[in-house]
Structures are given as C-alpha cells and as structure tokens.
Amino acid sequence: MDRADLGHKIGFGEDRFGSPARFLNGRFDCKVSAVDTSGGMSVFDTFRDIQGGPPLHYHELQDEWFMVLEGEFLFQVGDNKFRAQPGDSVFGPRMVAHTFRSLTRQARMLVAYSPALRMEEFFRSGLGPNSAASAEFEALHRTHNITNVGPPLGAEHDYD
Question: b/e per residue, 126-144, with b = 16+ CB within 10 A?
C-alpha cells in the first residue's frame, strides 16, 4: 500500500473518500484509511439506524476497538459481557470471539482495526441487514479472515 503523505481533516458526516459504505445495520464513514497508515490501522465512524449487530465472530489477524459515541450497546468479548454507553470503549483482541448489539434505533460508535488489512473493501460490499445468514455473507467473512462462531446477540441478555 502507498502511504498518503499528507494529514487530513474529515468533517462530521463525511467519508475519507467521499462515499460512505452501507453494511448490515448502518453507515460506515471511513475516517482513517489503510492507505493513510501503510496498513497499520483503519478507523470508521459508524451510524446505526437499525437495532442489532453482527454474529459472534473473531478476526484471525486483527484487533478491533470500539468507542460508543451515541446510544447504548451490548457487547460480548470472550466470556465477558458489557453494557456500553457514550464514552465507554471496548477492546476485542484478535482470535477472541466478540459481538455487539445496538439497543437504540439511533446509535453511533467509532470502530478501529489494527492492522487495517482490507476492512474498507469489506464494508463496501454493501450487504444489507437481511444478509447475515447468506452464503455471500459467510464467503465475505472467510475472504477477510473473519470466522463466525455464533448468532447475533438478542436484546434479552444480562450485561454489566
């Protein structure tokens, strides 16, 4: 990857390349690209407009970090379960199963990946909220070294 040599500012509601991605239950605005960091990390501002989240999964090659900015989320990382609100952050290390669920219709969080790999391409696949059980969804995950190991969280779980 060629590193971008200039710093940049991305405004609220804007995407690094001018075209936010829609994936599952939200919009993903790239704020820091793999190109900016020579593949070291990528950061997305995510806007969730449908309650829910991804299936329980792990990343073989990446750590994932979340910071809640708006709304409320449930998280599971390994055997640990958390309720997270604005200002809370959650870390999901590589090879540890994790998932989350937005509880509010309008929710927002920052999500960072290290290393970045091809997460921008992953989110730009454009899979919608009803695609999580599809063969295409599973193939996309395998291509990006993500393994699904369980269902998405339901709203009925008890969390700290």
Answer: ebeeeebeeeebeebbeeb
The amino acid that residue 71 corresponds to is G
Is this structure's pTM higher than 0.85? yes
Please give the pLDDT value at position 5: 65
Task: For the domain covering 21-152, report its CATH number.
Answer: 2.60.120.10
Residue 145, CA distances (Å) to 40, 95, 113, 119 in order: 16, 10, 13, 11
User: How far apart, in whole angstroms, are the C-alpha atoms of residue 28 and residue 51?
Assistant: 15
Nearest to 111 by CA among 160, 73, 152: 73
Contact by Cβ (8 Å): 48, 26:
yes
